[in-house]
């Protein structure tokens, strides 16, 4: 791989890692602020239920039936999505709900698309619990 | 055709090919395709097919639990998110896995896999 390719490869991994840390930190400490990461054409599939647009998505996430939670991330994989400069991010980890004895396992994928000023927003979001 | 039905049909075809004719998977990727398999990255249909053919088991059977899909953008692509279990011949317990595909349309009206990420879900 030449130097330019190495740079791009490292870049999307860095973006993916930074995004994942930011996303789950917000989720666990200020769930309402997650809305800042989506826009009007964003799509969420949450355990098979589909939501379109930042308002519906924000409402779903803030209405989830638990007050406190903590995400523990096990793996983060990313790839470039060549058409449109997006980054695909694939996460697996555990979700601890307050008051629950056992952690839930989950997998989640995001497509991040670049915004004009160098940040990213979530265009696609699919979340699934991994049952034992 | 309904996108969910398209995604489901592709997923069934992919795993049927994986389980009965692993070399045939090469036809589902192209030169720009990328695979990340348990963290290891491979690019291009030939290298990907070689990686999948070299996996350390002869026979396997994928059982699919969930398939979710969403359109990926103006180029007509589809993101497909799969979870299921993988039974290897001779192993007592099935392995759980999650996989995401980014499918792009071909001129012939079918799809190829542009992005593919696979992870086992350990207990």
UniProtKB/TrEMBL annotation, chain A:
Q: Which GO terms describe its cellular component?
A: cytoplasm; nuclear envelope
Give the subcellular location. Cytoplasm; Nucleus
Q: What SUPFAM superfamilies does its record include?
A: NTF2-like
> Where does the protein principally reside?
cytoplasm
Question: Key word Protein transport present in the record?
Answer: yes
**Superkingdom to which the source organism belongs:** Eukaryota
Question: What InterPro entries does its record include?
Answer: NTF2, NTF2-like_dom_sf, NTF2_dom, Nuclear_transport_factor_2_euk
Keywords assigned: Cytoplasm, Nucleus, Protein transport, Transport
The protein's matches in Pfam families, at most eight in alphabetical order, are given as: NTF2 (PF02136)
Q: Cross-referenced CDD domains, in alphabetical order?
A: NTF2
Output the PROSITE patterns linked to this UniProt entry.
NTF2_DOMAIN
Gene Ontology BP terms? mRNA transport; protein import into nucleus
Annotated NTF2 domain ranges read: 15-129
What is the annotated role of this protein in its UniProt record?
A: Has a role in nuclear-cytoplasmic transport of proteins and mRNAs.
PANTHER family in the record, alphabetically?
Answer: NUCLEAR TRANSPORT FACTOR 2
What is the name listed in the Swiss-Prot or TrEMBL entry for this protein? NTF2-related export protein
Q: Provide the species name.
A: Elaeis guineensis var. tenera (Oil palm)
From TrEMBL, chain B:
Q: Where in the cell is it found?
A: Cytoplasm; Nucleus
**Gene Ontology biological process terms from the UniProt entry:** mRNA transport; protein import into nucleus
Which InterPro entries does its entry note?
NTF2, NTF2-like_dom_sf, NTF2_dom, Nuclear_transport_factor_2_euk
Record keywords: Cytoplasm, Nucleus, Protein transport, Transport
The principal localisation class reads cytoplasm
Domain NTF2: from-to ranges: 6-120
Task: State a GO cellular component annotated for this protein.
Answer: nuclear envelope
Known role: Has a role in nuclear-cytoplasmic transport of proteins and mRNAs.
By what name is this protein known?
A: Nuclear transport factor 2B isoform X1
């Amino acid at each position: 791989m030449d130097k330019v390719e190495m740079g791009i490869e490292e870049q999307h991994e860095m973006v993916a890692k930074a995004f994942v840390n930011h996303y789950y930190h917000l989720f666990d400490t200020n769930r309402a602020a997650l809305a800042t990461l989506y826009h009007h054409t964003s799509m969420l599939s949450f355990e098979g239920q589909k939501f379109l647009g930042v308002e519906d998505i924000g409402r779903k996430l803030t209405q989830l039936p638990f007050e406190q939670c903590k995400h523990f991330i096990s793996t983060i994989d990313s790839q470039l999505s060549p058409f449109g400069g997006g980054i695909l991010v694939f996460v697996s980890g555990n979700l601890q709900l307050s008051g629950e004895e056992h952690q839930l396992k989950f997998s989640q994928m995001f497509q991040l698309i670049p915004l004009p000023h160098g940040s990213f927003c979530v265009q696609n979001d699919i979340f699934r619990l991994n049952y034992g | 055709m309904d996108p969910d039905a398209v995604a489901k049909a592709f997923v069934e075809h992919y795993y049927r090919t994986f389980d009965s004719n692993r070399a045939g998977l090469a036809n589902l990727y192209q030169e720009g395709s990328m695979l990340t398999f348990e963290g290891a990255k491979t690019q291009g249909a030939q290298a990907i097919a070689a990686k999948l053919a070299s996996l350390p088991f002869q026979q396997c059977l994928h059982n699919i639990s969930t398939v979710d899909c969403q359109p990926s953008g103006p180029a007509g692509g589809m993101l497909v998110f799969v979870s299921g279990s993988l039974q290897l011949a001779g192993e007592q317990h099935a392995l759980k896995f999650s996989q995401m595909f980014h499918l792009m349309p071909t001129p012939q009206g079918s799809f190829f896999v542009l992005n593919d990420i696979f992870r086992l879900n350990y207990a």
